[in-house]
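User: I'm writing a short methods note and want a consistent example. For DUF2088 domain-containing protein, I'll paste the sequence; you return only the structure tokens, no commentary, since I'll be parsing the reply automatically.
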Amino acid sequence: MTQASTATARPAYVRLVEDTPLPRVALCRQSFAATRIDDPVAALRRALAEAPCTARIHPGMTVAVTAGSRGIAAFPELLRGIVADLRARGAQPFVVPAMGSHGGATAEGQTRLLASLGVTEASIGCAIRSSMDTVEVGRLDNGMSVRIDRLAHEADGIVLFNRIKPHTSFRAPNESGLAKMLAIGLGKQSGAENCHARGIDAVPVYIDAMARMKLERCKVLFGVGTVENAYDQLGHIAVLDSAGLIEAEQPLLRQAMANMPRLPLGPVDAPMAEGQLDVLVVDQIGKEFSGTGMDPNITHRFSSPKMTATLHIARLAALELSPRSNGNGNGAARADVVTARLEAAFDREAVYANALTSTVLVQAKMPMVMPDDRTAIQTAVRTCGAADLSRPRLLRIPNTLHLEHFYASEAMLPELEARGNVQVIGPPQDMRFRDGLLADPWPEPAA
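Assistant:
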């Protein structure tokens, strides 16, 4: 056998699964109650005009505006709107990446990550100043250093901008949002590492303590927080004064929790999905879908044992790493099987920087790898433990953020049709593959 043919030869173990039959699936659509802002920039302009705290902006002052690593709805448009408002008030705004250790924990990597999310100097209308340098603003009672981005600290003021949503690894009054961005995102790699030093379960304690210290000692002017609906669309914009910001953010987190999409399992009115599923197929994982690549609030595969799972998925197959994730395959570890192309896109520099900073090393692991989509799904079906492997309860989703459309196996259709918020769009059909890759298309998401 030649060297070239050896490189493309299928592994011998594939024969153990390649005769596994796959269920027929039907395209379905579920609906969620949702409020949507149709003109994000106009809504932002109104919110800023109505907030008394924006009066702190004075002509000539330099203002650092934060930008994180998540794929926020209308991200570049809103950031450009904040920059334009600050400039209209006479300020000199610039943007700083506020994403802890993401982007490979380098200044260049964080700039590239923003660009992958549509945030560039051209798209937002101001300079992006990226640095991993930090300064210490104080120490907690236990001696832990509290650090902040040097460029932001040297500016005349700081404006926080972030989406508010449930965290993937802990429950607390403040989870992902403005307080976390201030405590961890603006702490860069060193500050994020300190916040995670005592383990993931202690993170909310340090988010609160570090954010409060920075609000007291740093020049935070105000925060702009967004809440999204179940369709990944902008649902609410809030401008929060730095005074009382931590408490003011908490009802927005509750709103975001209620807005989250979910898999169509368990009672329709339950806060999260419940029950059993044999197989979940996730087409793409990536940082634009969740900080952990696949949102555990959807899959219920949490890093912390303190998180309560009400849904059990016997086998989970992840097929691809989104190109916009820039190699950060954080989340692959929560799958049982992945494809060779996902493994090839997995950048240890990006993943390991996150894992070492957060101390959650499990997120850097790689599951079983199969050559392509077909064999990965066959592996999941063959090993899921269903009483009848010819009729597994299987769902396929595009990612863990967009759950309006999904494919469901025939065995699930009666229960889905009875839910009331699910429409079976097409008849059950065999899964279609092209060169081992799934060829069944996804409809365009809601406009």
